[in-house]
Amino acid sequence: MSEPTKAPAAAGRAATKKALPEHLKAYKHVWVFVEQERGQAHPVSWELLGAGRVLADKLGVDLAAVVVGAKNEQTQSVVHEAFCYGADLAYLVADDLLKDYRNESYTKALTDLVNVYKPEILLLGATTLGRDLAGSVATTLLTGLTADCTELDVDAEGSLAATRPTFGGSLLCTIFTLNYRPQMATVRPRVMPMPERVEKLVGRVIEHPLGLVEDDIVTKVLAFLPDRESSKSNLAFADVVVAGGLGLGSPENFQLIRQLASVLGAEYGCSRPLVQKGWVSSDRQIGQTGKTIRPKLYIAAGISGAIQHRVGVEGADYILAINTDKNAPIFDFAHLGVVSDAVRLLPTLTEAFTKRLSPHQRDRLAS
Amino acid sequence: MHIVVCMKQVPDSAQIRVHPVTNTIMRQGVPTIINPYDLFAIEEALRLRDTFGGEVTVLTMGPPSAEDSLRKALSFGVDRAVLLTDRFFAGADTLATTYALATALKKIGAEFGPPDIVFTGKQTIDGDTAQVGPGVAKRLGLIQLTYVSRINSVDADKRLIEVERRAEGGVQQLQSRLPCLITILEGVNEIRVGSLMDALKAARATLIKWSAQDAGVEDITKCGLRGSPTIVKKVFAPQPRAQKAELIELGDNPGEALIDALFQRQPKLEGELEKLARGY
Question: Going by fewer Cβ within 10 Å, which terminus of chain B is more open, N or C?
Fold first, then answer.
């Protein structure tokens, strides 16, 4: 860790940590909200159970999974999976009103659970669902919430130390919620490693009623339109990713990224400015506010490598960077670098890869 | 209709640099802009006003210099701009921010008519939390519709609204009621070029400036640093990797040379790439 830069304004206040108020001492154990949409658990939930396991072990407390969903077999199987990914127990709110995610019903379910069973730490995925829910729950409970953490730990006094990028990712900061409970944090998908799944029987499940009828819920779900398989980006799980940035110079040149990706059978992506300019759709954005990737090979072309981008790609096994500026920050964390204009280099690279890799394709067709 | 847009003035993060020696943010000379995600909220609000009539109010909390961004918003044709500025608001985290904004929104409602829709952008580019919109909605008891990619219909008489909301793996079509708070997704519209008339008006307009007291804040301990349950204990620059990238020269046949260099250093990649290219 590098040294803290300048004492932040809050440091003095933080140093005078008050003893936890009596009514907050009852808050114990680490909870992970297991996100599911229509019976499908989001993998970030298992990543969080892995991270939560470490925190719970350090604190010497239980790790609980919180499952909220329709009263059916799919929800039961999500509960089962949660135990396989390391939960010691599960809290379950099962009600058919919870079939679809809606802010009102899910906020009630999770807030009620917290008020009755009192966790000290509550982790959620920083997905569209998790961010929609976390803000409502934290505001209802009037507690602290640290969004998009890249690192979670507990300090010597047992407080959650949540580290996240700040100032658009130029710096990192470590944030505490000292005198409020629960301490809430969200983490983006693929930031934490996926723990190993170990087959286990379902353990202790504590069921809690939702206590709502349909008329209590204002918002109605008229339909759910699943994304077409073909248009879905699979960036987060791709083995090879090719991405472009402002160095491409024009929206037309983004074609060069797609072409290389296509030859490699890779997914393509971009840095944030391209999304802001409207050159590329936001589901292709890589970085702190986009997707976190963990490929075997990442090729970054014309991307300067602001920290906001860096935190999304650091999990890559190998990073090849192409940039005209030899001082670009991307060369601080890439493995191999070429100081060159990506617009010129990409076509020859694509051509060379086509030659190298296509004979095998011919072999396959022949056999 | 009365539509209120909560917006924020942010440093243009593309131009932020960290001082190489002191690891502090070099703010000097970094231009400030309207949070880019908020522009979509402003435009959506203006479109609804153009269709249904009424007024658009923009609200921001920030230092006195945030006036620049409010004037910019007025130049797009926004009707009214409110600046919430007070040293008591400084150092606010998301919870304290939502308290201040919600208090000001109540005051806006009392003075200029209750809002039918409150808009925010998806998130800001400096905080990136996406938590202020939901927090404001919760404090005001408004229905929240986040990540809205499309407003399908608004029935001002029946107080109904239908939207499409980006969810994980698909889009939810939702029906809900007014008043509500909407956080709008980027790319759904394009901010207009304001008329010359609006630009002139914006330059001359008197902004509404409220201190905490003006806005009706009753409990100052819920504002700013004091009202923030989260505490920033440490700020630091990311750890530089011990080794920087190995920079290579490619010569006359750069494509081939780069692939050679890559496979030489990562022999396993050759097989992996062949497998992938074969369609696995």
Answer: C
If one looks up domain B2-227 in CATH, what number appears? 3.40.50.620
Q: Which CATH architecture has domain A11-216?
A: 3-Layer(aba) Sandwich (3.40)
Judging contacts by C-beta atoms under 8 Å, the chain A residues touching residue B237 are 2, 5, 171-172
Of A306, A334, A353, the CB nearest to B259: A353
Contact of A132 with chain B, judged by CB distance below 8 Å, is answered with yes
Q: CB contact, 8 Å: A298 with chain B?
A: no
Q: Calculate the dihedral angle through the C-alpha atoms of B244, A345, A235, B267, rounding to the nearest 10 degrees.
A: -60
Provide the CATH topology of domain A230-366: Rossmann fold (3.40.50)
- pLDDT tens for A57-69 read 999 999 999 999 9
Q: Is the pTM of this model over 0.80?
A: yes
Contact A47, A189 (CB under 8 A): yes
pLDDT at A11 over 70: no
ipTM of predicted assembly, 2 dp: 0.87
| Residue whose pair of structure tokens reads 């809606």 in the numeric block | A102
Residue ranges of chain A that CATH labels 3.40.50.1220:
230-366
Cα torsion A184, A189, A191, A196: sign: positive
pLDDT for res A12: 38
Residue A6: exposure state from Cβ atoms within 10 A (0-12, 13-18, ≥19) = exposed
**Tell me, what's the pLDDT at B168?**
81
From A144, A130, A167, A174, select the one nearest A288 (Cα to Cα): A167
